[in-house]
Amino acid sequence: MSRPIDVIVETRYLEEQSRPEQDSYVFAYTITIVNRGNEPARLLNRHWIITDANGRVQEVRGAGVVGEHPYLKPGEQYSYSSGAMIETPVGSMKGEYEFERDDGSRFDAPIDEFLLSMPRVLH
Fold this sequence. Notes:
The protein has 123 residues and is an all-beta fold. It is built from no helices and eight strands.
């Protein structure tokens, strides 16, 4: 079964903001959310699980994304960029967005796990 909401992720290592000598690795990610369903929906909340290579987990919950609650009609998409900081050169993120349909019913759109990796670390 196809998902009503598709989440596409692109990541980038931010060398200029990272401090490897202080175990601080910064990554930017751009998310594109596409409504592939038959009805409009508004993004209400986000939930992220960020894990570094040492197994340290950060959990982030909050309203909307970058201060917004995008409303997507069928076929529409919304993109935003944000960032994450971890203590190792490699880590991962996954989570979900909570959406609300016009009738008030809610559903979660899963965000599949994606890699955060400093260039030339993984072969």
